Amino acid sequence: MRSLPHCLQEMVDIASFAVGEVRMLHRSILICSLLASPAVQSNPAQAVGCDIEHVASTVNPRAQVHIESATLVAAAGPVAAHCAVSGYIEHGTRIGFTLGLPQQWNRKFLFLGVGGFAGIPAPLDGGVARGYATASTDTGHKGTSVEDATWALNNPAAIINHYESSIELTTQALKQLTSAYYGTLPAHSYFQGCSAGGRQGIVQAERFPTSFDGIIAEAPAWSYAKLLTTFVENAKQILESPGNWVPPDAFRQVDRVVMKQCDKLDGVEDGIIEDPRVCKPDLRELACKPGAHTPSCLTPAQVNILTKLQHAGFARGRPGYYGYYLTGSDRSDMSWGWSEWFFGTLPPLADATGKLNFPGDVLPAGADRGKGPNQFILGEQFFRYFVMSDPHYDARTFNIERDAQKLQTRLGNVLDADDTDLGPFVRSGGKLLIWHGWSDSAIPPQMAIELYTHILKDTRQPLTHDPVDRAVRLFMVPGMQHCGGGTGLTDFDALSAMEHWVEQGHAPERIDAWQRIAGKRVRSRPLCPYPQTPHYRGSGNSDAASNFDCK
Questions:
Q1: Gap between the Cα atoms of 170 and 166, Å rounded
Q2: Which of 527, 512, 534, 514 is nearest to 476 (CA)?
Q3: For residue 518, what pLDDT is reported?
Q4: Rounded Cα gap, residues 43 and 450, in angstroms
Q5: 163-183 pLDDT, tens digit each
Q6: Contacts of 26 by beta carbon, 8 Å cutoff, 6+ apart
Q7: How far, in whole angstroms, is CA 161 from its chain's centroid?
Q8: What single string gives the DSSP state of each residue in 418-430?
Q9: What phi, psi does 325 have (nearest 5°)?
Q10: pLDDT, position 506
Q11: Which residues are within 8 A (CB) of 331 and not within 5 positions of it... i.e. 6 or more apart?
Q12: Count of alpha carbons within 13 Å of 111, Cβ hemisphere only?
């Protein structure tokens, strides 16, 4: 356990390894000076009182930490009885936090990241049920939903907190509170988050490398500028013609054809496409007959737009991302499929100027406004409130050269988690587990592969240390949509794999995962560390992970 009382020595160690660590050193000094306190006595963990006076008395008086409530919550189902604490930290804005302190503590601390534009802490029940002191944050602002970016308008302090400061400040404050509450330090500290929450984990590994023993970064939005640029560019392609819109019902047929053409390519016909990069679906099989147009067939324009979206970004000479794949797990009834992210629930309509827009911005109040595509909603919110500081900015006017440059000028120093030399994190014993769903239609799977490749290439290690891949692993998940859902291997336990890695020193060589149909586990497969994939041994039950090897 790398605890705060030793952080000044750790800063010296970090700075001695590489030039260019000044920014990280400055951040570490800030955290230490704000939150450093005498070491907590190491006594056996036991539950103590849960009232606001007692919890508030555990807070370091030099930290700007304020407790608003402390309530004893009775056990309910798998969630153990725990002290539910909420409050905030003053740091330019109020960074709200929640903390669950179970009566039967496992002597571990778990911080849960938040996706989108945050504004709402993540639910704590899963961590508390496993005995963790579990924490989360709103990242320094209140939002109506994780798609709401209005808070960022002309609010640089909130933007800095959201993209950089809030996780570290909250982590250190709540680890201290946890230690004081139980009378002993956590034995291990972990982070787990998806999407923008996954980016938060990568930021921690890069900029605050001694805060967590293990970080699970799920579908991390680490290259944020390119990703949000891609969102807007994808939407603009769809809005070029009313014929480009693909209705939600069509994706049942798209899934059927993709699975028919590609399921057997991995050697086993099982409703799972292991590596969609080898799948080149020909959607002309779904082409409508002349004069016909139904949800069960596609027009030439629809075939063309689905093909273009799979090869967007760099493949078209633009500074965005490519790597979206049709995988047979792309419909929305499983979670968030292509309809949710690319097309929305209703077709585009002409606005007052005659240009196409998504219905939510066109129809009058009271009409069925449907739901616009998540990519366009997030992209436009981002450019309106973070980049342009103009609540009326129309993302359809986005210009790649002009607007991307403004984005880089305003936010380049804090936005992207692209300092991929993880030497300080690795040398301090940290472990990073990245996973990404192959069926993710929000963040292209190629992003995770690029991140992992950069980390292996950029991380500098002395010859006396283990290779970087003993501390960093990537797992690609067949049939998994964005952060969950889909028809593939959606049921697995990354946190247990991380515990085994940190606490017993065994890097995960495979993680067993299950496919569920109608809520029931029907088959298992190993998730393999990239670039390995599972291969059937040729005998035994092909629905059992034990009959597959990673190679």
A1: 6
A2: 527
A3: 86
A4: 44
A5: 999 999 999 999 999 999 999
A6: none
A7: 18
A8: -----HHHHHTT-
A9: -125, 140
A10: 94
A11: 248, 251, 252, 254, 255, 337, 338, 339
A12: 32
What is the C-alpha separation between 193 and 520, in angstroms, rounded? 25
For the chain, the domains span: 4-224+416-441+451-466+478-485, 226-411
For 435, the 3-state DSSP assignment is strand
* Opening angle at CA 36, ends 32 and 41, nearest 5: 145
DSSP three-state, residue 94: strand
Given a cut of 70, the residues of the chain with pLDDT beneath it are: 1-48, 312-321, 363-367, 369, 463-464
In contact, 516 and 492? CB cutoff 8 Å: no
Q: What is the pLDDT of residue 321?
A: 67
β-pairing verdict for 188-194 and 214-218? parallel
* Angle ∠(448,253,447) on CA atoms, nearest 5: 10
Q: Which CATH architecture has domain 4-224+416-441+451-466+478-485?
A: 3-Layer(aba) Sandwich (3.40)
Closest of 242, 238, 172 to residue 210, by C-alpha: 172
SS3 per-residue string spanning 306-330: HHHHHCCHHHHCCCCCCCCCCCCCC
Residue 466: how many other CB atoms lie within 10 Å: 10
**What local confidence, expressed as pLDDT, does residue 56 receive?**
84
- Phi and psi (nearest 5°) for 374? -60, -35
Judged by DSSP in three states, 540 sits in coil
* Residue 65: partners with Cβ closer than 8 Å, 6 or more residues away: 59, 87, 88, 89, 173, 177
Distance CA 97, CA 99 (A): 7
Contacts of 401 (CB under 8 A, 6+ apart): none
